[in-house]
């Protein structure tokens, strides 16, 4: 559509509102179900920005830490570090590996928490700002798409889980050696046999089981986080539509919609804080568990 085309004056329907909020800002329109040339620019922007912000905050708090009575922020960070370190020691028994794994787990927790916490911002705040900037640049603001919760984007959560998979493969090779890990792939978990025919059959079965296990863990790791955050985002949209149905009406029905909008929005936001923390903790714990399994020999 031309930038000079007249804008429609009709209000969008509920389905139009949801579809608009679920559409990513992309470098070009997607062609087909799978198109690796398409990038969700909004997810990349917020993920990188929050990742840098999280690292900066951790560095800033650590650099200003004192040995005396800690402030509230320092005390909270110390509690978080102690919690992560305790979990890392219980799961990853290699002290040399923990020097990398424990800070990695802390970073994962803080990063995923910040990504999830974007869901607590007002649903239309950043999209409205983006529409204003997009329209000021001479474009049709109706085509200004922006999703600002990166963990409700499957490509982000699967990217995180694939990164964990690569770290697990690295530790499998580092701890067991390339030959030892290759031997484990064809002998665990069902063992082997002295009979050449049975040994070959077991090797194929073991390898298939190992590949399925790696795939299932990676997919479930990313899908769990995505599913919870995507569902939370949809509920916020439905609550926003409930407020839109009020339409500044002072009738009893309109005031009831307003009351439901305020109460349900407040209640879901409070409950969602627990979801945000829980999902960050679960993602961190699964990261530790999978890396710990890479250290175990079968």
Summarize the structure.
With 298 residues, the chain is mainly alpha-helical.
Task: Please describe what this structure looks like.
There is one protein chain. The chain is mainly alpha-helical. The protein has one domain (23-174, 217-295). Helix content is 72%, strand content 0%. The chain has helices spanning 14-21, 41-63, 72-91, 95-117, 125-136, 154-187, 196-246, 252-295. Mean pLDDT is 91; it is low at 1-8.
Pick out the low-confidence regions: 1-8
Distance from N terminus to C terminus (CA atoms, Å) equals 61 Å
Tell the overall outline: globular
Please write the string of helix (H) and strand (E) elements: HHHHHHHH
Total strands: 0
Domain module tally: 1
| Secondary structural class | mainly alpha
Beta-strand content:
under 5%
Largest β sheet strand count, sense and barrel closure: none
Taking all residues together, what is the mean pLDDT? Answer: 91
Radius of gyration (Å): 24 Å
* Share of helix, binned: over 70%
> Helical element count?
8
Strand-helix topology:
Layout: H1 14-21, H2 41-63, H3 72-91, H4 95-117, H5 125-136, H6 154-187, H7 196-246, H8 252-295
Helix pairs in contact: 1-7, 2-4, 3-4, 4-8, 6-7, 6-8, 7-8
